[in-house]
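Repro:
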Amino acid sequence: MIRLILTFAVFCMLGLFVQGTILPAASPDFITPDIILILVITLGLHARNIYGLLGSFFLGLVADAASAQFIGPHAAGAVLAFWVVNYISQKVYFEHFVGLMILGFVAS
């Protein structure tokens, strides 16, 4: 469990760094992926319990802290995305890449 938390923390910090600095500097017109949303979708597919919900909430809080605006919009969006992914994944079995892409589009 601790290893999973540390892995998500490292990917969160690394993803926010790459998303906020390197990709916009390389090409301002480049569409940057939302790393937090990718991690929340992963939690929604693999951790369907309260710990996954709390993890997505804290990932959203980290995104709020990184944006330096209001505290709460990213956290609420991450919890809503977790709920949508969790609900859809209970109804439909996702293993294919195209299905996961469509699920990411719906969650965003």
